Amino acid sequence: MFGLEKKDLNLLIIVALLTMLAPFILNPFPTDSALAQFNAGYPDLMQRFVIYGIFAIGFNILFGLTGYLSFGHAAFLGVGSYSAVWMFKLLSMNVLPALVLSVIIAGAFSWLIGFISLRRTGIYFSILTLAFAQMSFALAYSVLTPITNGETGLQITLDDPRILGMSATADGSIPVTNIFGLEMRAATDLVIGPWSFTFSVGYYLCALVMLVAFYLSIRIFRSPFGMMLRAIKSNQTRMNYTGLNPKPYTLAAFVISGMYAGLAGGLLACMDPLAGAERMQWTASGEVVLMTILGGAGTLIGPVLGAGMIKYFENIFSKINEATLHSWFDVLPDPMENGLVWVLEHFVGAGWHLTLGVIFMLVVTFLPGGLVEGGQRIGRLFNRTKAAKDDESAATKPAE
Amino acid sequence: MGILEVKDVSKRFGGLKALSDVNLSVAQNTCHAIIGPNGAGKSTLLNCLVGKLIPDTGSVMFDGQSVLGRSPHEINQMGISRVFQTPEIFGDLSVFENMMIPLFARRDGAYRMHAYESVASEKELVSRALQMLEDVNMADKRHMHAASMSRGDKRRLEMAMCLIQEPKLLLLDEPTAGMARADTNNTIDLLRQIKDSRDITIAIIEHDMHVVFSLADRITVLAQGTPLVEDVPERIKGHPKVKEAYLGETAHA
């Protein structure tokens, strides 16, 4: 089905189920329980999971397949956001034209940057992309203020023309983003006993877009084009002497991943219609590199897992503070409690980066293939014990 | 007129004259060997043929067209395939994929964005790749990572990758360098089989006289960047000039 092999189709179905049931899966703890702060099932965060998932899926097409490490992909994310907000200002609050424009502009922009950066390989390529992204950030922050609204960030206002929509709603407020009238922020709550689950239009739109993006990335991975990209990573000399020109292939991969980034940026703006220059900063470019490596570069599902993990830590771990830690270790004797809290407080709250750093270090050292490799190892372990059991039962049977 | 015509080719690296006025003509469907002591300019000459180096003067014509100024992938598309001294294969890819890439390159040219249909859906190319793997006795290894194979297998894979493109000219750069005697003999058998079974011109650069004399129809001896003699193997063997060039190296061999 869908032109996929069984293994890939199963993966797609699993991802589809996980994203569609995410409001349940991510809210395992009752709303009033102490553990409720570990719930991630609220629309704002779930949207981030899937949007950054799209960003990482696209980045993986470049980095995972060709091995070209770009440190400037946040620029395309930012360009996507700006394009979408401009569409909201000028055309209408419908997200569809905004997303289309985001992808087109980000594609054109990445073609330009890719065309120049891909003249070099390895570290020089990385530095070139980093330089371009920082230039874009600086431009957005100051020089291009008429387009980007500088450090304030681009926002929608009551005076925007919106030629196919309306400048203001009947009651005089700014209209909200929607898809053919269905508002992005619209949500329904489902309360079952102590649990509460929220289903929002915005999340499901993002999730559907991510599923399409994921599906396309599977097709690219399995296509002759994807095979050529892996060949580039493997041996460019042989590539050349086999009659293939690696340059257009890498450029195409660069533009595709730029378009994915633009799509993600556009979706961010659809969920919250403002765009700031900080979205283009190098830390944001570094983040997508971390996501891809953490999840498993070159694997299909890895980037999505990595994106989810990093966004979870960013939003959940950073909310834990000293007081929360004290309440957890209440039962311990005071000196022990204070000591433990003193150590742990550096790893939570504003220090969540420290936890992330430790995890990243552990994963890269012990699981070079990322979380996906971890999953595979666990899978093999189970298979082995199962196989061993089968052997045992087979061996014992004749005796009976 | 040969399929490959090298005329008055010179190449200088700073003060070193690597090639001076090299003339070479390789006739169609023959095996032409280029031999010579270390530093004779064999590899420089080869690199001038495949677009890696551009000679300072002279011309290189292949099949009636100049190869000068063309990049390696364009020259490959003209019909020249090259086997390297140390096998250059796609190590991270499976053996089967290693066979598919040259097939796509030959059918679709230097670049074609074919990003939606799967590799497996290209039934005709798949069957050709499997057939070729069958021919070189590697069918059972098709799912292996190419990098995990033995050196001899890598060499065979690389040759199969070149042959599946049905090149007009196959260039071999010391295909048996560093090989054990048994592997060398296997390679000779493989090459002889290739030579006898299809219309192909082979140009081979080689150190090992055993390989050269078992395969070549014609031999050019290169010394200090100039061709010394060109003749059939029987007459090269006892040629005084050749002995002189190789003196101290293989003169008593």
From TrEMBL, chain A:
<feature type="transmembrane region" description="Helical">
    <location>
        <begin position="201"/>
        <end position="221"/>
    </location>
</feature>
<feature type="transmembrane region" description="Helical">
    <location>
        <begin position="98"/>
        <end position="116"/>
    </location>
</feature>
<feature type="transmembrane region" description="Helical">
    <location>
        <begin position="123"/>
        <end position="144"/>
    </location>
</feature>
<dbReference type="GO" id="GO:0015658">
    <property type="term" value="F:branched-chain amino acid transmembrane transporter activity"/>
</dbReference>
<keyword id="KW-1003">Cell membrane</keyword>
<dbReference type="InterPro" id="IPR043428">
    <property type="entry name" value="LivM-like"/>
</dbReference>
<keyword id="KW-0472">Membrane</keyword>
<keyword id="KW-1133">Transmembrane helix</keyword>
<feature type="transmembrane region" description="Helical">
    <location>
        <begin position="9"/>
        <end position="29"/>
    </location>
</feature>
<dbReference type="Pfam" id="PF02653">
    <property type="entry name" value="BPD_transp_2"/>
</dbReference>
<feature type="transmembrane region" description="Helical">
    <location>
        <begin position="350"/>
        <end position="372"/>
    </location>
</feature>
<dbReference type="GO" id="GO:0005886">
    <property type="term" value="C:plasma membrane"/>
</dbReference>
<dbReference type="InterPro" id="IPR001851">
    <property type="entry name" value="ABC_transp_permease"/>
</dbReference>
<keyword id="KW-0812">Transmembrane</keyword>
<feature type="transmembrane region" description="Helical">
    <location>
        <begin position="49"/>
        <end position="69"/>
    </location>
</feature>
<protein>
    <submittedName>
        <fullName>Branched-chain amino acid ABC transporter permease</fullName>
    </submittedName>
</protein>
<feature type="transmembrane region" description="Helical">
    <location>
        <begin position="288"/>
        <end position="310"/>
    </location>
</feature>
UniProtKB/TrEMBL annotation, chain B:
<keyword id="KW-0813">Transport</keyword>
<dbReference type="Pfam" id="PF00005">
    <property type="entry name" value="ABC_tran"/>
</dbReference>
<dbReference type="GO" id="GO:0016887">
    <property type="term" value="F:ATP hydrolysis activity"/>
</dbReference>
<dbReference type="GO" id="GO:0005524">
    <property type="term" value="F:ATP binding"/>
</dbReference>
<keyword id="KW-0067">ATP-binding</keyword>
<dbReference type="InterPro" id="IPR027417">
    <property type="entry name" value="P-loop_NTPase"/>
</dbReference>
<dbReference type="InterPro" id="IPR003593">
    <property type="entry name" value="AAA+_ATPase"/>
</dbReference>
<protein>
    <submittedName>
        <fullName>ABC transporter ATP-binding protein</fullName>
    </submittedName>
</protein>
<dbReference type="InterPro" id="IPR051120">
    <property type="entry name" value="ABC_AA/LPS_Transport"/>
</dbReference>
<dbReference type="InterPro" id="IPR003439">
    <property type="entry name" value="ABC_transporter-like_ATP-bd"/>
</dbReference>
<keyword id="KW-0547">Nucleotide-binding</keyword>
<dbReference type="GO" id="GO:0005886">
    <property type="term" value="C:plasma membrane"/>
</dbReference>
<feature type="domain" description="ABC transporter">
    <location>
        <begin position="4"/>
        <end position="249"/>
    </location>
</feature>
